[in-house]
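Inverse folding, one chain.
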């Protein structure tokens, strides 16, 4: 009885020591002599070899792709190109202007036979049409506008106009003289060019613009002569002044007209030959004598 208690006490002590040493109960037994021995199962088989653990398959978690709504591209209309007016070169001589440069333009066009009147110094529709005609004949855009290219071309195609070319005595060039005007002292009056040329032995001494009677009071045509002169004449029929009057056919005369000077060709006479340049008609009045020829023709 005493021996059994001793053995039990020793066993309990060994078990506690094994737990402190990190062994699990049952891995080792203590013999009666207090020595450690392997378990019966371990002693009857070969010691276990240490083998590496079998690799475990690894799994990667693939996230499901998010569904993204794909919007179709916007179909917008292509931008409309902005229309811009073609660039136009600025005019060197603008339409509607007046001056010496316009006179030069007209004189150069007249030298080429494109401007069928004497220079007036005003750029109007007649001058514009002449510019267009020049441009068409020289490979330029027929705009009627005098830009630098047109002006340079025109100047190279013509010679510089003289003062007489720039400041002619009449608006229209005097017409070819009637054969009756080529001898003696003659007031040679053309209805076509609306000019009066004072000619002496076939030479033009002076020229001026004139205006004639209306359809109902026409100026007579033919060969006449100066009957008499009246410096400060007043019409006995119309009671209007007729300065520097030189009568050639009844009541018809060559004289100065203030209405012609003011209104130009928008008016007409009662059959007389009106002159609008007062200085010229005064100089002519001083030269003409009674008996000098007067020729009125178309």
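Residues assigned per position:
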């Amino acid at each position: 009885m005493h021996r059994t208690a001793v053995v039990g006490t020793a066993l309990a002590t060994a078990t506690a020591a094994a737990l402190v040493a990190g062994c699990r109960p049952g891995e080792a037994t203590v013999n009666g002599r207090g020595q450690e021995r392997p378990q019966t199962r371990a002693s009857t088989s070969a010691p276990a070899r240490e083998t590496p653990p079998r690799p475990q398959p690894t799994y990667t978690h693939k996230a499901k792709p998010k569904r993204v709504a794909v919007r179709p591209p916007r179909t917008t209309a292509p931008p409309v190109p902005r229309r811009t007016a073609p660039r136009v070169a600025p005019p060197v001589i603008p339409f509607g202007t007046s001056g010496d440069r316009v006179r030069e333009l007209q004189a150069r066009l007249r030298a080429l036979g494109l401007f069928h009147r004497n220079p007036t110094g005003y750029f109007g529709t007649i001058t514009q049409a002449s510019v267009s005609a020049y441009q068409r004949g020289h490979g330029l855009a027929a705009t009627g506008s005098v830009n630098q290219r047109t002006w340079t071309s025109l100047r190279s195609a013509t010679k510089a106009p003289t003062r007489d070319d720039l400041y002619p005595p009449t608006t229209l060039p005097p017409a070819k003289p009637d054969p009756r005007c080529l001898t003696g002292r003659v007031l040679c009056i053309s209805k076509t060019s609306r000019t009066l040329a004072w000619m002496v032995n076939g030479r033009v001494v002076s020229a001026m613009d004139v205006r004639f009677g209306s359809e109902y009071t026409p100026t007579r045509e033919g060969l006449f002569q100066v009957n008499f002169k009246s410096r400060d004449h007043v019409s006995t029929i119309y009671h209007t002044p007729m300065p520097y009057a030189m009568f050639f056919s009844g009541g018809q005369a060559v004289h100065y007209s203030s209405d012609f000077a003011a209104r130009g060709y928008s008016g007409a006479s009662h059959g007389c030959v009106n002159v609008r340049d007062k200085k010229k008609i005064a100089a002519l009045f001083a030269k003409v004598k009674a008996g000098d020829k007067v020729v009125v023709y178309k």
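The helical segments are 2-20, 40-44, 100-111, 125-137, 148-157, 163-166, 258-263, 278-287. The radius of gyration is 63 Å.
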